[in-house]
Each structure stands twice: as C-alpha cells, then as structure tokens.
Amino acid sequence: MMASSAHKQQRQLHLPNICVGGGAAPPPTPSNNHPSTSASPAADALSRLLHSLPSPTLSLPNTRTRSPSATRPPLISLSNPNRNEQILSSASQLGFFQLTNHGISSQLAHSAELEALSLFELERDKKLSCFPKNWPLGYEAEEEEDEEGNGESFCLDSACYSDSNELNLTSLREFTRAMEKVGLKIFEMLAAALGFQNPLGDDPTRYCSLLWMSKNLHGNKPVLSGGFYPYIVGLHYQIRPSKHTLIADAGSVPISAEVDSILVTLGDIAQVWTNGKTKKVRSGRPMGGVGDEKSKSDDSISMILLVTLPIDSVVFPLIPKLDISNNNHGDDAENTEDDNNNSEGQGQSHDDEEGRKLFESFSFEDYAWRVYHERLLFKDDPLDRYRI
C-alpha cells in the first residue's frame, strides 16, 4: 500500500500542468520538488524544458480584416495644356481617371437622372412595350427580380429612342450626346499622345454609344447584371458623393470620385487598339456605385455612357501614324488608316517596342456576345484567347 502511494505521487510529479491561465502557478517539476541527487536524467531534461517555455496563455487569431481604402483616381482637367500626357499616363498605368472642366453642367446631369428614374417607375408591361429587347438595347430584368425592381436595367442608344411618344426624354438625350462628345474627345487625345491615327474620326458610322442605367437599391449595393459589354471609353458622371469598385487588370479597385467630375474608364477595345499600351476596366452592363452613408438613397441611378463599336466591326491593333519625313512612298495618315482597315491588321505593320503585335484580329460581335452572356466578369481575361 505504501509503495502504491509513492508510485502515484511520483507519476504526478512527472506530469506537466496543462491548465491555461496567465496567473497559473508554474508546473511542478522534478527540479523544484526533489533534490537533484534523487532525480533521474529524464526528470532533469524535462525540468530544463519546462523552465525554458513561457507561461502558457490562451490567445485567438485576429480574424478581423479592414476593407481596403478607396483610391482617388488622378484628376485631369480638359483645360490643362498637358492633358494629353496626363491622360496617357493614367491610361497606361491604371486605365481610369477623373475628368474636370468637361463642359457638362450638374443641372443637366440631375435632369437626366430624374428622367431615368421615371423609366424605372413605369409598370413592367410599359417598360417592355416602350423598350423592346433588341440586344443589347432595350429593357432587361433578372429572373430573380424582386418586388422592388432590383436587377433591372435599361440600355439606350445615343438618341434615347423608345417606341412611345408619351415619354419625355429630352434631358436624357442631351446628356447622352454631351457625354458621347467628351468620350470621343478623350480617345482623340489618347490616340494623339500614342501616335496613332484616330480610327473614329468624325464618321458616326465607325462608332456608337450606349447608355446603361440601373437603379441602386437595398442600401445602395452595386447592381451587377450578368457579364459586361466591350467598349472603348466609358464615362460615369458623379452626381453625388459615391464609391465604386472597378474591375481592372490588377483586380478589384475601390475608388472614390469627386462630385461633378466624370469617372473615365478605358475598355478592352482601347487596349487592343493600342496594342496593350493601355490598361482596361470591365464595365458595360450596369455596375452601380456604392453611396456614402450620408447620401444613401433609394432614388439614385447608375448611368454609364459607353463609346463602343458597331456590331459588325473587326477589332485589331492599330498601326501608328507614319513619319512623313521618313516615308519615301508619301503615304499620309489617312492612307495608313485605310490600309489598316482593309488589311484588318495583317498588312503593313509598325509593331510595338518588343517588335511584335500582342493581339490578333477578331469579330466584335462574337466577342461582345460571349462576354455579355457567359458572365465572365470575375473570371480569366477573355482577351487572352486573342493574344499572340
């Protein structure tokens, strides 16, 4: 019996104290309970190990993560004489910037927004009859549409045409055409800075504009309606303080733009035309901004104007303008552009600095249909299949 009690006591002395707590007593060890002359070599080793360990404490990993702070896009004024270089710098590094002194009044933007709101207040049958679907134009609603209309969107042409004479869209039409002029001017300056002949020129048959509208509901959460639509330049007038999440080449970028500025984004068509010299932002189908806490309202509209291509276009890298002084054949910029259009990028070539083109030519209609319907917004870059 005496032997059993001694054996039990010996076992307790060799077991570490596993209780957790900052104020717990240190675990009993052979070194502080028995003389060293009676301790075994194993006990001495365990004692040294336990004394070298810190007092046991309980801690939980910090799982709280902060939302990334919003980036303020570069601010560029159309009245700045260095605007071409500033646009080129922002386009090549980011793919987006803010534009001021653009000539579009806030009064016109607010009037256009009120007319856009009136469209969402129409009965569903009226929306369908006034704006029949003619892809990508017309009225569209997600199948999961709730009673408040979340998931609805309108896509109108630059004339804001409807099949009803009862709708007054005068301000919306004026706003759309004013935004289109700004978008064309931006790409003209970008082409000049890069040394490319502007393929749009003054010919309205070479481009078209689409106004995408969605209503922000449920606390101004962004409305994502499927995939996106390819474009050259996108413009979003900042009617009120708002934040946006852009899907850029580098991933999701939260940004905050100034009131009455125009948030300008460069699209995938601009990236192909410039042979990869500009970054791009995914947009097209409505992606509404997230309003500040002080400005949240159910009566806010996301309106994005896209300068894009006619559906039957062919997309390919553009040829830089020839240096007339070094051109023995005397080809001018207009002939260069015509040759480019006729050859679809396969004729005379002035490749990029690496000596090669980055993209092959492709059908705009095929590309637009695929990225619009296959919901590729957060997947791999759909332009990868056309890279050389």
UniProtKB/TrEMBL annotation:
<dbReference type="GO" id="GO:0046872">
    <property type="term" value="F:metal ion binding"/>
</dbReference>
<feature type="region of interest" description="Disordered">
    <location>
        <begin position="327"/>
        <end position="354"/>
    </location>
</feature>
<feature type="domain" description="Non-haem dioxygenase N-terminal">
    <location>
        <begin position="84"/>
        <end position="149"/>
    </location>
</feature>
<dbReference type="InterPro" id="IPR027443">
    <property type="entry name" value="IPNS-like_sf"/>
</dbReference>
<keyword id="KW-0408">Iron</keyword>
<keyword id="KW-0479">Metal-binding</keyword>
<dbReference type="InterPro" id="IPR026992">
    <property type="entry name" value="DIOX_N"/>
</dbReference>
<feature type="region of interest" description="Disordered">
    <location>
        <begin position="1"/>
        <end position="82"/>
    </location>
</feature>
<feature type="compositionally biased region" description="Low complexity">
    <location>
        <begin position="31"/>
        <end position="61"/>
    </location>
</feature>
<protein>
    <recommendedName>
        <fullName>Non-haem dioxygenase N-terminal domain-containing protein</fullName>
    </recommendedName>
</protein>
<dbReference type="Pfam" id="PF14226">
    <property type="entry name" value="DIOX_N"/>
</dbReference>
